[in-house]
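ping. complex inputs:
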Amino acid sequence: MDILAYSAVELSAAIREGSVTAVEAMEAVLARIDEKERVLNAYVTIDRERALKAAAAAQEKIEKGELTGPLAGVPAAVKDNLCTEGMRTTCSSKILENFVPAFSAEAVVNLEKAGAVLIGKTNMDEFAMGSTTETSAWGVTRNPQNTDHVPGGSSGGSAAAVAAGECFFALGSDTGGSIRQPASFCGVVGLKPTYGTVSRYGLIAYASSLDQIGPLTRNVADCAAVLEAAASHDPKDSTSIDRKRVGEDTDFTAALQDDVTGMRIGIPRDYFGEGLDSEVRSAVLAAAEVLAAKGAVVEEFDLSLVSYAIPAYYTIAAAEASSNLERFDGIKYGHRAAAYEGLHDMYKKTRSEGFGAEVKRRIMLGAFVLSSGCYDACYLKALKVKAMIKKAFDEAFAMYDLILGPVAPTTAPRLGESLSDPLKMYLGDIYTVAVNLAGLPAVSLPCEVDAKGLPVGLQLIADSFQEKKLIRAAYTYEQAHHKEMR
Amino acid sequence: MAKQYETAIGLEVHVELATKTKIFCGCSTAFGGAPNTHTCPVCTGMPGALPVLNRQVVNYAVAVGLATNCTIARHCRFDRKNYFYPDNPQNYQISQLYLPICKNGHVDIETPDGTKSVGIHEIHMEEDAGKLIHDAGEDCSLVDYNRSGVPLIEIVSEPDMRSAQEVIAYLEKLRMMIQYLGASDCKLNEGSMRADVNLSVREAGAEELGTRTEMKNLNSFRAITRAIACERARQIALIESGQQVTQETRRWDDAREESCAMRSKEDAQDYRYFPDPDLAPVFVSDAWLAQIRDSQPEFRGEKMARYRQEYAIPEYDIGIITDSKPLADLFEATVAICGQPKKVSNWLMGETLRLLKEKGMDPEDIVFSPANLAKLIGLVDSGAVNTTVAKEVFEAMFAGDIDPEIYVEEKGLRMVSDEGALRNKAEEVVAANPQSVTDYRNGKERAIGFLVGQTMKAMKGKADPGMVNRVLRDLLDEM
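pong. complex structure:
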């Protein structure tokens, strides 16, 4: 069998059985990268030598019986905002062009412990600010399904790499939809966990209260396995949550059950109003039918405050970003302007040269909403909206196990269409940002393709810590959908 | 008649807490150390690093809050204060603005007019910044992040003080309480206690406070006293000449005995404070609060009572020694070694206080160890040195914590106990002073004193005066 046709867990099983080696798997992936990368540009950094060495080391451990997990020996990619010890980490920004971290992000450490083998770092919107991967300082990533289109963003490189077989799975980060939306655009599975599930230690922050790391995978079984390996209670991250204390665990693969009998699924009417592409609408509603046919109780309801999510999100995210990005000043690491007169001129020139337009826009927006005249009217008001949105979801989850809707209003736009109208681009986040504001888990699943052959994503949202419900429904849908496709 | 003015003073006191590790990481807080050796990704602001609160900081902050009669916020938060400066690796300082840990307390001070209550507006927790080192030889500045992330509390008083004396009394009281709590060593000269003075003047009897200025860079009580006098005079002169006091921050130059404006309110930065999303809110539970209350150390009153029971020393000595935690610690540690409370107390009350006063030092600046003081007491007890020599040895110990036993040997200060050698010197003295011998014979007792003095001099002080006296009398009686 073609190595690249395996899913991540299938590949690991084959390696552990001895029919494939980890090095062969890595070589296959690197060959695919050679073939596709010139067009796709999914990676910022590829470290072949390190990857092959690590694959050989993993193979040895597997043979000795020291690595037995479902990801042992599997080549994986990591978004370029996750620190990797000894491997350049740039956030796709010029300001961190040559930054090599001294430590790895906790999620990366967890995956490596599970035997996954790092290939390199995937392209992204600069500092995860964008929805198309076009704001990267290292050039756009193209959608493998149609290279005239964007892969989505900000984890566009991760989604494209998974879709193109340039890796078996990838990690991304999701602040306002940055895992789910590119997963949807590229036709892969992307899951944003409950806030606090995966440690943020080593994730270069965009908006700390919203950022969450999660998997992008070829199927739901891989998604559960990667999430299980990445999740941990980390004392180095004060916002990391010990799931045992809320009566839950991280045994996500146990939820891979083809059964949604009696599961209550709510469809918010507000998610199907104006602005939603008709092909996306019918694809998502068809998916709801599939779940209903499998025994779920599906009904429409009104989720309030939907239109407030975007302004609240952009206020909070920009505020935090304006502060989080202050450390990039040319003093300690990263880019520093070549010529300057004194400290303040150095700051100004370094940051003017180092940051791209979208990052500057959000820093300015954030500094504005935190300024003394605006703090109460903008920032505090946004926090109130955030609390009200959480309450609206609480009410919904008193009635439903899951909420079902689209991931994005359209399929992937063409390259170059989005950046000219940032406001329109921001509005594309309408179905994803509320989930981050409420700290909830949500998954994006491929359902149909539109007339242009571009994938449509289905979004399932669960209450906090209910990833297992998400995985069960996603797995059930995937099984039924596959049968249908055959 | 000239107008009468009243001064209103409030203080912002920063105190470095005595935790072993920093406020948001595990790095050491030790003072000194080669630059950037007490650092990690968190306290150098590396991308992806996250802060985790050191609970001991909360313990100390709450303890100080309880000692200053504050209301303890059961739910508080950290906020980011955003400003760009290279000593601040994240370009924001983690502090508390919106929900500080302690509020609405007071400290009672003694004034010539009786007890006075100084209000505490709030106490908040925050991290210290690193240090910039400006390299004179090179065209660059260097940053040392060893101090970055050292925990501080800022104690903000109400503008309740009316004179420099009240300010000093307040600071001394605060310092004593914090030292007793073990929350800080409160050394002004090392910067572990720093006070900024907010001062305004108004016509006596006026209801509204005048426009205030904030004075920084005050490194001693003396500097504070002088700065207050100067600033009061400066503001009054402005008002008398029909000008306005500008709300501004001023920097005190103690050498020149004057201050200059650093920045005015107009160019004050907007720090864009907002709650730090990397840190969870702090909830001080009933159990936690009770635990802090129960672990409060012995306060001065309790210590005085214990001293009365345990040590046979005068009440006056008890009062002086317990007034300063470092002095009390030194006393107890030395007594624990030598078991002679009265002698230890005598050294502290006498020579120690004399030298502190003479050198303008505070008890926390004392460098000699309890072990060395105990050794010195042992040397006197065994007759190895007399009290005059002991004082000389003590001065050397006070200056540089030398080992008195080694010092006495190296300097050859040990008393001569060889009676033969003493007798030889005494004979020389008697032979050289026939008039005194005659006087002695004629019953002039004073003459023996002169001969003892001369003999001691010839012995370079290294003899027991009692022994000299006996040897001389024996000699004269034999003649």
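Chain B has a mean pLDDT of 92.
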